[in-house]
Design brief:
The chain is mostly beta strands. Helix content is about 0%, strand content about 50%. The protein has two domains: about 130 residues, Immunoglobulins (Immunoglobulin-like, Sandwich); about 120 residues, Immunoglobulins (Immunoglobulin-like), CATH 2.60.40. Strands 1, 4, 6, 7, 8, 11, 12 and 15 form an eight-stranded antiparallel beta sheet that branches. Strands 13-22-21-16-17-18 form a six-stranded mixed beta sheet, with no helix packed on it. Strands 5-10-9 form a three-stranded antiparallel beta sheet, with no helix packed on it. It is elongated.
C-alpha cells in the first residue's frame, strides 16, 4: 500500500509595526513531490538597503530561507530546505518576497512565517500548509482462498476525496509465465473489457455501482487452477499512482 499525498494551503494576512505584507486567501492543492509558492509581498519597495526577509517554520522557528545585506543567504538555511526553498531573486527588488518550496513531503505540513524588516518598520504574514490529503489504495491484508469453479472478489479501494472522474486509469494485472498481463482495465471513466488478456476475458468485471465510491474491486468468475498468484491493482491520477496487491490461493476443488 502506498500513500500519495496532496497539500492544502491557506493563507493569513498579518500586520506588525506599520508594514503590511500581502498574501492570498486561495486554497491550493499540491501533490506530494510537487511545488508550491508561499506568497509574501508589499505593494512597493523603495530600496533594498536595510531590507531583511526571513522565512521560518512558525512552530519550531527553523530558518527556511534568508535575504540579508542585499543577497540571499542559502548557507543559513536548515539542511532540510537546502535546494528545496528558493526566493524569486529578481523579483525581490519589486517587493516580492514569496518562497518557492519544491519536493513537498508530508512533513512540510504546518505554519510558515514570512517576516520583513525595512529600516524601522517590520511586518509578517503567516502561511499554513493546513492539510495533507492522503490517497490510500488498499486491498486485502490476507490471502484470498478459492476453489476451482468458484467466483471470488479481489479487493481494491481508493480511500480519498478524489472523485472517480479524476482517476485516469485503474489497472488490474497479474504476472503470468514471467510477464505482466492485463486482467481488467478502467480508463476514460469506463471499463475497457477488450483490453483483458484472453484467459480473463468474459470472466472479470468491476462492481459498476460501487465505482463512484472509489471501489475498484474485481470479481473473478469461475476460478481456474492457473488463476492462483499475485494480482496488482494500480491507480493513476495525474502524474501520481498508487497500488495494492492481492494474493489468490486455490485451496481445493468445488464440491
Amino acid at each position: 500500500m502506498y500513500l500519495l499525498n496532496c497539500v492544502l494551503m491557506s493563507i493569513l494576512l498579518m500586520i506588525a509595526d506599520g508594514l503590511m505584507l500581502k498574501g492570498s486567501l486561495d486554497h491550493l492543492v499540491v501533490p506530494l513531490g510537487g511545488s508550491v509558492v508561499l506568497p509574501c509581498s508589499v505593494d512597493s519597495l523603495l530600496s533594498l538597503e536595510d531590507l531583511e526577509v526571513e522565512w521560518r517554520r512558525s512552530d519550531s522557528q527553523t530558518l527556511i530561507h534568508l535575504y540579508q545585506d542585499e543577497d540571499i543567504r542559502p548557507e543559513s538555511q536548515h539542511q532540510d530546505y537546502h535546494d528545496r526553498a528558493h526566493f524569486f531573486t529578481e523579483d525581490i527588488k519589486h517587493g516580492n518576497f514569496s518562497l518557492l518550496l519544491n519536493n513537498l513531503t508530508a512533513e512540510d505540513e504546518g505554519q510558515y512565517t514570512c517576516k520583513v524588516y525595512i529600516g524601522q518598520e517590520s511586518g509578517e504574514t503567516v502561511v499554513e500548509i493546513k492539510h495533507v490529503e492522503r490517497l490510500i489504495v488498499s486491498g486485502s491484508s490476507r490471502s484470498i482462498s478459492a476453489s476451482v469453479g468458484d467466483d471470488v472478489t479481489l479487493s481494491c479501494s481508493v480511500n480519498s476525496h478524489i472523485k472517480p472522474e479524476e482517476i485516469e486509469k485503474v489497472s488490474w494485472k497479474k504476472t503470468y509465465k514471467g510477464e505482466p498481463i492485463t486482467v481488467l482495465l478502467y480508463q476514460n471513466n469506463k471499463t475497457q473489457s477488450e483490453s483483458s488478456d484472453e484467459q480473463y476475458r468474459d470472466r472479470v468485471e468491476f462492481f459498476a455501482d460501487e465505482i463512484h465510491r472509489g471501489n475498484f474491486s474485481l470479481r473473478l468468475k469461475r476460478v481456474r487452477t492457473e488463476d492462483k498468484g499475485v494480482y496488482i491493482c494500480q491507480v493513476f491520477t495525474g502524474r501520481l499512482s498508487a497500488n495494492t496487491t492481492v494474493i489468490l490461493e486455490r485451496l481445493g476443488e468445488s464440491i
